[in-house]
Structure formats: structure tokens, C-alpha cells
Amino acid sequence: MTEPISPASVEPTPDLAPERFAEMASRIEAEVGGFIVGQHQLVRQTLISLLAGSHALLEGVPGLGKTMLVRTMADALDLGFSRIQFTPDLMPADIVGTNIIVEEGGERRFRFQQGPIFSNLVLADEINRATPKTQSALLEAMQEHRVTVAKQQYTLSEPFFVLATQNPLEMEGTYPLPEAQLDRFFFKIDVPFPTEEDLVAIMERTTGVDQPRVGKAATGADVLAMQRLARDVPIASHVMAYAIRILRATHPETERVPEIVKSYVRYGASPRGAQAIVLGAKIHALLDGRFNVAYGDVQAVAPPALRHRIILNFEGEAEGISTDSVVRAIIAETPTEPAE
Fold this sequence. Notes:
This protein is an alpha/beta fold.
């Protein structure tokens, strides 16, 4: 018989005022930005994913600092951190843990040995290098914040986030993530190559004697309070309807969709895409110091919320159409007011 594990508890904090939210978020971005050169949009979108209580997928070629960003974010938030390096021979038990036999008082019994998934912030490094069987081991943890081993359920501690990195699929030795697992990621964030100015700053910081240090900008309890406040942000019915029109415009069978959708999209985004747009827009408004959601907030978060939820057809793949170009066309052609 296995012994259930009690999740680590976080002391609750009083509800935050909206101005405190923006102040605390700015402090987090400043701490992370002091270590990660440039990449303001990358840091902002990663922070929005965390404050939504969800997960993010970071895609870029090796060497762009994806792993360093996640580790720095964990340090700035004073969260428990674990890293899982995904490889083709990684097994599900290497992620969630397994039962081992121990001898106590002359008796042998099973004891559950926790895997690295039992942490607050889990870095799934190069997730698309593992086989689909191993990738699927994260599904229950990401959706339910718990894992099941030998019919016994174990609850993960809060806050819990999975930040996964992946190399572009055209690189050798990668396994595409299934659509069901991609849909669990709140945002898919592209990691751009640094500018020449940023590269100079990176060389100065990484090849010199003095190394920057990350300070503690918030705690796990602060993060939970920020998550609660984010869900309290009001959104007007016409702004909500605009977000839904953007989602529906990703489906080629919908009336009055852009021509690029009709020609090159096979399947549109799921309802989780609309959830990500609305919640992401609420957090985007708070980060801007506002306690209401505007059309611009919806437009700002739509690309990372939808780019991994749109499935192109064969013609789109053959023509080299990107889902980003599809989302841009949808935003440009979807009116803020419903068509009569």
C-alpha cells in the first residue's frame, strides 16, 4: 500500500489591489530583465502565462536562453524548481516517479518516490525530443495538477507551472507534440534571435568576471494572489464577443473569414483558445495599470494564444504558410463591432 503525499502548502496572502499587481509584476520583469538581455516581449508573455496559472511552450533554436529564462523566473519568484531534460530514452516514471520497495521494522512495503514533476515550476527542456509515450506523462499533471501512479493519486503543490522548450520541428531527432497536448499550453511563445545590440550586451555579461544575480521579487503566495486578482478583472460583453469572433474566424467553415483561413486552415482553435485570449487580455490590462479589458489587450495576446491551436492543411504546409500570418490576417480583418 502506498502512502499518500501531502502537497506543500502556501500561506494565503490578502487580496491584492490592482496597483499592487502592476507594481509587483514590474518588479518581477525588472529582476528577470536584469539577467535576460532584451527579449521584453518574451519575458512579458511568459509572465502572463504564469499569472494565468497555466503553462507555456517556448520555441526557438538552441542557445537563445530559453532554459536560462525559466530558471531565472523561478529564482525571481522564489519557487521550487526542477528541470527534466527530455531525451528519446526518457521514460514516464522518470517524470512522475515510481513505487519502490523499502524495508521498515522487518517489513517490506511500497513507498512512492517522487519524480521531478513534484515542484512548483517544472522546466521540460527540449520536450519534443522525447517519444509520444513520455510526452503524454505530462498531460494529467498539466490539466489536473495531480498524477496517478498504480491507482494512487498524488496532488501537486501550488502554484504549479510547466514551462516547456522545444526546437523547431525541422531539426533532426524531434517528435511533434500531439494536438491534445499542445492545446494544454496557454501560450506558445516564439524566442527570437537577439539583435546586434543585445548580442553585445550578452557577450559583456557572460564573458566577464562579474555575473548578475537575480533577486527575489515575489513569493508563491504572491503569485496565487495575483492569479486570483486576474480572474476578477471585468471584461465588457462587446470585448468578450470580439475575442470570440477572433476565435471563430480561425475555423474555415465559419462565414466571413479571411481568405487565408479558407485556403490554408484545416482545423481552427479550440475553446481553450478563447479562454487563453480572455484571461491573457485581463492580465495584459493589469500589467498596463488598467482594471478593464480593451480591444488592444485582446489583439496583443491573440498570437501566442492561437498560433499552436491552428492546424494548417496540406496546401498551407506546402506553401510555407505560418500560423502567425493566419492570426495576423484574422486580427486585421475581424471588426471590433459585429457585422450586421
